[in-house]
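pls read this protein:
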Amino acid sequence: MTKHLSGMKQVGPQHFQEDPGLSFEDFAIGDLYEHWPGRTITETDNIWFTNLTMNSHPLHFDNHFGSHTEFGKCLINSTLTVSIVVGLSVSSTSQKAVANLGWEYIKLPNPVYAGDTIYGESTVLEKRESKSRKNCGIVKVRHVGRNQNNTIICDMVRSFLVPKKGKSTAEKIQNITRVRN
């Protein structure tokens, strides 16, 4: 009897292997993936990210400045918000991807503050076989990030190139490094 465990595939009796993500064939238009767990953003995350990206806007690191804005405090750097929403989605959507191909739009309708927790979901919008790479397909998803109050804080559409079954680097490495049968 084959056991079915979330995110795992059985490779032998009582032997399971983490599944490295979805292949092109696994995506279906209209599928909705709720990503778990969420990610609480701290002031330290924001300051480090802001410094790493050389963003010098004081609204991200100067509490006195932030207190005099319409927000009343510092905001989380918007590109950190985008990065976290995408990051939340990777294991469910693009873990096997060869490359990000682009974003059609990114909207940030509500601010994010230190202490907010971001949750994400992704909906498959389109998929098609790649014309230039026969072993891959192109998948387009809509990512929506919400805070702990279910308020939308990020909405974007992203496309990525994903291998067909058995063609991903992750699957090749798993087959090479498997030590037990």
Notes: The longest strand covers residues 117-129.
